[in-house]
Fold this sequence. Notes:
This protein is an alpha/beta fold. It is 31% helix and 13% strand.
Amino acid sequence: MPDSRCGLCCAECGWKENCGCGGCIETNGKPFHGECPIAQCCQRKGLTHCGECDELPCKKLYAYSYLDPENGDNPPGARVKQCRRWAAESGKRVWKNVLLTDSGWGRSLEGGVYENILRKFHELLGKPAEEAKVLFIPTAATKEEAKIYAGKCFAELLIAGILPNHIYVYDIDGRMSAEQAMRFDVIYFTGGDTSFLLRRVKETGFDTMIKKMVYANKVYVGVSAGSLIATSHIGAGDQETAGLCLVNAYLSVHCDTEAQARTDLPLPHIPLRAGEALAVVWDGYEKIQG
């Protein structure tokens, strides 16, 4: 049962006695030292906790959970994880529809497809491919090589059975409304410049739409850069490099066969190679070998 708005477990919190905290739920959002902005935000929106919000995690909760060196979570993202658990337990947020790939499901050299990754895509889709509508995002493809590969990504969707007139190419210009985005069954991000993609997503407010789609169990497919922005962050760990937090882990793409997961980081590190993907659900992930 939720005992806070932000996902902090009150029973295990040292602030309760040391600071005379009465709990954010019990005190109507004023646990100690004045109002808590997270609790007040939840209450204004009529939410029990942040896990019920389409923006999870917003900038404020991200800062509390990931960036505060003194009072932040250990491991980072623990509050976000707890909020997702509460939301799943209540049946309000049970999503299982994110597919993060190194390079899609097409074999670039020998031809053909990685059957297991393509099979997972069809499983997540949950409907005949010819009926699905795809929002195709090539925004990261700023260089010629990446644009060529974006064309191959488009072709992969056709191989998967998606009809060409059901694929809408959108370059994230800020003109799409949340209502329009929600009409699609799939949102597909190609590879390219990860920093540019993440910056454009945030500047246009498209990050909130992405989360809204994921939480409504639309299928998210990432290729390379499109996979990296789904992690907790893509760089030094600040607001500028904060990712979508769909998976609470560090991700590396285009790794060679000898690459090993790093063990010196506060979150799991997952190296992806060609023919590998992560199937992500609200409470974890599994690695798929093509």
